[in-house]
Design brief:
Number of domains: 2
Strand content: 25-35%
Structural class: alpha+beta
Order of helices and strands: HEEHEEHEEEHEEEHEEHHEHE
CATH topology of the largest domain: Alpha-Beta Plaits
Number of helices: 8
Shape: globular
């Protein structure tokens, strides 16, 4: 149990309610399953994270599951890396990137204006791959089964935002970043397997995900290298958003207002509610 607690940097909030750090690439469901295995108790969560995201997850263990409801409804703060001028079907690096033939010019002043616009309520179209359920199945599951997914829209706005860093990057810099991401993903899964073995959890059952994402990153790198003169705009931002807001969709919201496409290349949840 101790090796699991150390791996996810466990912090006890109150008896039965803990804050853990979901590592990059590891499915949220795996963490709840690992705690069920290690404790033998009922385990719930206060909101999952996409596999290609990392950061804070609240877990309720035993009687702590009854304390999770208010966190499911809470606002959340994220730090994210958004790349403009490139896209993918998943909105992040789960699936290979696509580069449009026509590129927009990026105006620093216009980016700031867009964030101000998004601070007012607007309709956000959810990404095709999302956790919303229809007849007991998530959109993720339906898409992977080859079924049609109904487009869903939520009303949202940026409650708070800051652009931490903004810069143009070259194709070679993006390709190098994708290669570094693959190494990071492999290292994360290696730790996952070690911890799983220590507590008797079959972490290897998720190895197919690692292989799928490695292939996606390699294909993405090849795609970027096909257009060596292309340039992209990278935004490092921090935002506070209401329940139900998708940061992958926020990348699209920003990009569409600039007349281009966009996607997430990094995402970390910093807090939920007061935690």
């Amino acid at each position: 149990m101790e090796v699991l607690q150390t791996w996810v940097q466990e912090k006890v909030i109150v008896d039965g309610l803990i804050n853990v750090f979901k590592p990059y690439g590891i499915p949220s469901t795996a963490l709840t399953e690992m705690y069920k295995k290690a404790t033998g108790l009922k385990v719930g969560h206060g909101g999952t994270l996409d596999p290609m995201a990392q950061g804070m997850m609240l877990l309720g263990i035993g009687k702590g599951t009854k304390l999770l409801t208010k966190y499911l409804e809470s606002e959340k703060r994220y730090r994210s890396g958004i790349l403009l001028g490139v896209t993918s079907e998943s909105g992040d690096l789960e699936l290979p990137v696509r580069i449009p033939e026509l590129q927009a010019s990026f105006s620093e002043n216009r980016v700031v204006e867009i964030f101000k616009e998004l601070s007012h309520q607007y309709s956000q179209v959810l990404p095709t791959l999302n956790a919303a359920k229809h007849k007991g199945k998530t959109a993720y599951q339906l898409v992977r089964e080859g079924k049609e997914v109904e487009q869903r829209v939520v009303e949202t706005r940026l409650l708070d935002w800051v652009i931490l860093h903004q810069m143009e990057i070259s194709a070679s810099e993006l390709a190098a970043s994708l290669a570094a991401t693959e190494k990071r993903l492999i290292a994360s899964f290696e730790s996952f397997y070690v911890v799983g073995k220590e507590i008797g959890y079959p972490a290897q059952k998720y190895s197919f995900m690692l292989e799928k994402w490695r292939k996606s990153l390699e294909l993405s790198k090849l795609e970027v290298e096909k257009v060596p003169n292309q340039r992209y705009l990278f935004l490092d931002i921090q935002v506070l958003v209401p329940k139900g807001t998708y940061i992958r969709a926020l990348a699209t919201d920003i990009a569409s207002r600039l007349g281009t496409v966009g996607m997430l290349i990094s995402l970390e949840r910093l807090s939920a509610g007061n935690h």
